[in-house]
Specification:
Elements lengths: L10 H53 L19 E4 L6 E2 L19 E5 L7 E2 L2 E2 L7 E9 L8 E5 L4 E5 L8 H4 L4 E15 L2 E8 L7 E7 L1 E11 L8 E4 L5 H4 L6 E12 L13 E3 L2 E3 L8 E9 L1 H7 L1
Organism: Shewanella avicenniae
Protein name: PilW family protein
Keywords: Membrane, Transmembrane, Transmembrane helix
């Protein structure tokens, strides 16, 4: 018996149509849900890749030129002999060793162009009266070098010729003309950089302390999502300009840091663990990650992660010996 006109639908036909529509609607919702999940996953993996590549590029380009000091590259800096310092550094960042501040001192130990430690495990860097606020279990690296092309910079400056070096800040009462500082000299910008990881608003960030014209008072937040950093130091023990082995910071000796004899650090391997900024509730991370010699995880949270790595050859230690 028809419930509506002879040209309408029966109750059974209407119910069948509603069931079919319901299944079609559920299918559409499932498709949209899968599409949204894929978009989230793809977007987060792209974010991991781009943040990791950017962080590695920033660190690598800086580290590969560490130890460059113009015409006196490879020379020991001896105060009142071949080295003159005009002005002091405020809030200086000082690492381990007898001669490991921004500027050389009168200690007989070699001036350290590179040094590192693992936060919360070994060593520390103190800036002013405060220890560097690095995430425990992550590596910190400190490097010093001149930057070119030659010419007076807005920051801290250094004048060099083939036998002498003169450190002076832009605020020091010293002529900026290199010829008035030293005979046949060139003026360069001077960099003292410290790369480390810190947590800001619950997000891990690759940060950098840097030297200005007056002191170590610049702090740059460079890339978000860098959760762990591991650095292995490649040292050349037989003078063939190649790294025989790569060591964690705990195994690098004072002789290696000071580049004494043939014990030169000629390369570094950098491992970064990159984490997404946002969590994905549909994803659980139970993966174990390998950062060189160190294993981290599983984290059992909802952040995606990725390991990126690179090896940086250090040109100046090799050129110095040769």
């Amino acid at each position: 018996m028809k419930l509506i006109g002879k040209n309408g639908f029966s109750l059974v036909e209407l119910m069948v149509a509603m069931v079919i529509s319901l299944f079609l609607t559920l299918g559409v919702f499932a498709m949209f849900s899968m599409s949204a999940t894929n978009v989230t996953t793809t977007g987060q993996y792209n974010q991991l890749q781009e943040n990791g590549r950017l962080a590695l590029a920033i660190i690598s380009q800086d580290i590969e030129q560490l130890g460059f000091f113009g015409d006196v590259t490879g020379t020991d800096f001896i105060i009142d002999s071949n080295t003159t310092i005009v002005g002091a550094i405020s809030d200086d960042c000082v690492g381990a060793g007898q001669n490991n501040a921004t500027l050389p001192n009168t200690e007989s130990a070699h001036f350290r162009r590179v040094w590192g430690y693992e936060a919360g495990v070994s060593g520390s860097i103190t800036c002013g009266s405060t220890a560097l606020d690095a995430i425990d279990g992550t590596d910190v690296i400190q490097i010093k070098r001149l930057v070119g092309p030659a010419g007076v910079s807005a920051g801290y400056n250094v004048a060099t010729n083939s036998s002498q070096i003169w450190f002076y800040g832009a605020s020091a009462n010293v002529p900026s003309d290199a010829n008035l500082l030293l005979t046949n000299s060139r003026v360069w910008g001077y960099q003292h950089h410290i790369y480390y990881l810190q947590t800001l608003n619950e997000i891990p960030v690759l940060s950098r302390k840097a030297l200005s014209s007056s002191g170590m008072n610049i702090e740059d937040q460079l890339v978000e999502g860098i959760e762990n950093m591991r650095i292995l130091y490649g040292y050349d023990e037989d003078g063939d300009d190649a790294a025989e082995s790569f060591l964690p910071v705990a195994n690098v000796t004072n002789m290696m840091w000071d580049n004494q004899s043939f014990q030169r650090i000629v390369a570094v391997k950098i491992f970064l663990l990159v984490r997404t900024i946002e969590q994905d509730p549909s994803y659980t991370n139970d993966i174990t990650y390998q950062l060189g010699d160190k294993t981290v995880g599983p984290f059992d949270d909802h952040f995606r992660r990725k390991v990126l790595a690179t090896t940086v050859m250090l040109e100046n230690p090799v050129l110095i010996r040769n």
